[in-house]
């Protein structure tokens, strides 16, 4: 049965969301509430109306804009398949991102299964906060997991993201034990996730669960200010500046621990 869901964007010719040239489909809804989120419009599961401003000469106009679109699997795949020739030539495929794609379980499962039926390489970009049975269900149809790890200290995780990290870490242990293809992604948030203590604890956790895949470090960008304004919510990271040295320091920690690491995904 074809499934319906809500997406908020489709990005063509994506080159940072998995191997080769890809189309990335952004599903709405996220169970986390990261204070540094650069896609705050993605968090609600529903379509939402926002007020946008635009300037024409001296005049400022305010207009309503809808974020989110109700679609079904067939419509999404029709769009994705338009670029199949580029995926085939570059070993690319389709990536399902968000928000958190696992927040729309039946829709995501159907998207992944249908993509595999059409011969596509499938990737999901996930924060890992999802029931185990769902992770088990999608595993056979997911060629690559881009799996975010942010903070190992659980109290800090709750404070900065609103949820415990236990499920996230357990799901990662499970996926590693199943020999899933995983790339760990770590957003480097100044003085929150990029601290020496957190990085050493992440390394220790990954060694403990026998993860030996790649690490992608994602440097902090404070580029979502206008989105926060449009949504009329406070941007708690507004004054935080990117620490240029942080990614190099963190990368060298991972390299010394024997991991293959790249900056920027
Ligand atoms: S997991 Fe990603 S989409 Fe969700 S709140 Fe955090 S940064 Fe935003």
How is the secondary structure organized here?
Blueprint: E1 4-14, E2 22-27, E3 48-56, E4 59-67, E5 69-72, H1 73-81, H2 84-90, E6 93-97, H3 105-117, E7 121-126, H4 132-138, E8 144-148, H5 154-161, H6 166-177, E9 182-188, H7 196-208, E10 214-219, H8 225-231, H9 244-256, E11 260-263
Parallel strand pairs: 2-6, 6-7, 7-8, 8-9, 9-10, 10-11
Antiparallel strand pairs: 1-2, 1-5, 3-4
This protein binds iron/sulfur cluster (SF4).
CATH class: Alpha Beta
Give the number of DSSP strands: 11
Low-confidence runs: none
Secondary-structure element string: EEEEEHHEHEHEHHEHEHHE
Tell me the name of the CATH homologous superfamily: Aldolase class I
| Helix/strand/pairing category | alpha/beta
Biggest sheet: strands, sense, closure? Answer: 9 strands, mixed
Which descriptor suits the 3D outline?
globular
Fraction of residues in helix: 25-40%
What is the quaternary state of this protein? single chain
Rg on CA atoms, Å: 19 Å
What small ligands are held by the chains?
Answer: iron/sulfur cluster
Using the coordinates shown, work out and report the CATH topology: TIM Barrel
Please state the average pLDDT score. Answer: 93
Instruction: Estimate nothing, just give the exact number of structural domains.
Output: 1
Number of helices: 9
Spatial order of strands in the largest sheet: 5-1-2-6-7-8-9-10-11
CATH architecture classification? Alpha-Beta Barrel
- Proportion of β residues? 25-35%
